[in-house]
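Ticket #4471: complex job returned nothing on first submit. Input attached below:
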Amino acid sequence: MGKTLVEKIFESHLVDNPCEGVHVLNLDRVFCHEITTPPAILDLKRRDKYRVFDPDKIKAVIDHVTPAKDSLTATQGKILRDWAKDMGIKDYFDIGRNGVCHAIFPEKGFVRPGFTVIMGDSHTCTHGAFGAFAAGVGTTDLEVGILKGICAFKSPETTKITITGTPAKGVYAKDVILSVIKMMTTNGVTNRVAEFRGDFVDNLGMDGRLTLCNMAVEMGATSGVCLPDMTTVEYLWPFIAGDYASKEEALADFAKWRSDDDAVYADERTIDISKLVPQVTDEYRPDVVKDITEMEGRELHQIYLGSCTNGRLEDLAIAAGILKGKKVADNVRMIVSPATPKIYSDALEAGYVKIFMDAGACLTNPTCGACLGMSNGVLAEGEAAAATTNRNFNGRMGKGGMVHLCSPATAAASAIEGKLTDPRRYM
Amino acid sequence: MKNFGGQILFLDRSDINTDEIIPAKYLTEVERVAMGPHLLEDLKMEGFTHMSQPMKDSTVILSRDNFGCGSSREHAPWALEENGYTVVIAPNFARIFRGNMYNNGCMAIELKEEEIDEIFALSSGPETTGVSASVDVDAQTVSVKSSKGEKTYSFTLSSYDKDLVMAGGWLEYADAKY
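Support reply: We reran it on our side without changes. The output follows.
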């Protein structure tokens, strides 16, 4: 009987089975940010266990509120900063070099096929785009991960989601994942891994695969995964060129992680996206997803382009293509937050930043900020936003605020008209 | 081991998420005690008043599908425990929330849909008083007591989850074993 990618990863990283169905795994990466890590650091200090299992496998970033907005967030940053220094964590990213965790860590080549990754952040599932098992965890799991380099997981059942077809004009990875979430519902993949397959995924670049895997947790999934292929090799090549004689050799090595053809899945779904139109969420659940044609004209106050879902260069390029020579409508404000300094810098070079500024958008430094209502664009009570982010719970972007999740194209077109807008008219 | 049992707070809705349990704006605090006053602050539900007397007096939550979905924040179980809530009972939970409960030596107990319905039938909304639950970890049962009598329900718990509850959490367990 064949194995899935995640079964192979579990088998190769197994430390112990404390009981049937529970697997304690070795960790290749423990990622840390300044919101969920400081309580773990303080607890380790209190327990007289102020140490880490391996400073090279731990990567840390200040990203949620940066630069600090007040004394409390300054303290969180200081705890992480001092700890990174004390522990000798070299890959630590502070103001000026910091970006949204699930954008900057892939960009630095920290995740490879076959890796196990945890972070105290639910969107850690993003990193499965490289063919890794990447799971969001709470602070206690993070704390044990930091201390011992292990984490416990239930058996990795997998839901295989096959996405076929060529997307029509105006339809992107974000529209596809929203339609998948609609199909699976908010807990349709709970305690399972979502494995994204099919020709749509094969033809998708890494930016799009990261968008797909990013929202796997919105269906309850432990990790999203894509199988490693030449696209993965090409993306990682700058970081792995020294390890392999050729890209073909790297591909052959990565192939050992791919799910076997006769692997057994807990659930298998197929979705044809060739007739899909741009998608947008309604209400406060990520699985209440509608065609843009049903949602056009909804009142908006803010447009937000950024986050670990859609703050990458490809996303900024799509939005800039629509906004070029156009203005943000007077009744809305637009905030653009490139997800990393490199993306910001590349967007400057490509002329996107000028397009956004000429349109009247505000550019912020890379940060999670407004996505979870912590800083840099929090909504007022009764306001609505079109956002390229991943979660639309009541109050997510600010108490009493409504978030319509959408693609960068829909966000950009909506900025021009000042209301929810079908982007296909601007293409 | 912690104390598991007490008056039930009835939250009759599915998908109660971590933003509702503890809003992100309080995540700037690094000490769990700061979470206490803000538990369920943003929960909008008919009949529910934040920090009402029944909410203050209860120590067990009964709710519906997918409780604790959303963010990975362990601030959610911390906020619950700061208010004495060491048990949540629901048909199922979001994975990270469930793990966080047991990692803290607390309990997320799954009962069958019809059993949950039966217990909800004893309530008249979030302001209900006088319905209590007591958990026997060894026997893996929860007994619900009201003016109508008492009924005991069985639940399954892996030996691993039970060990975490006995140890007081994952850190204590892992430190002793690995």
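The first strand of chain A starts at residue 14 and ends at 19. Closing as resolved unless it happens again.
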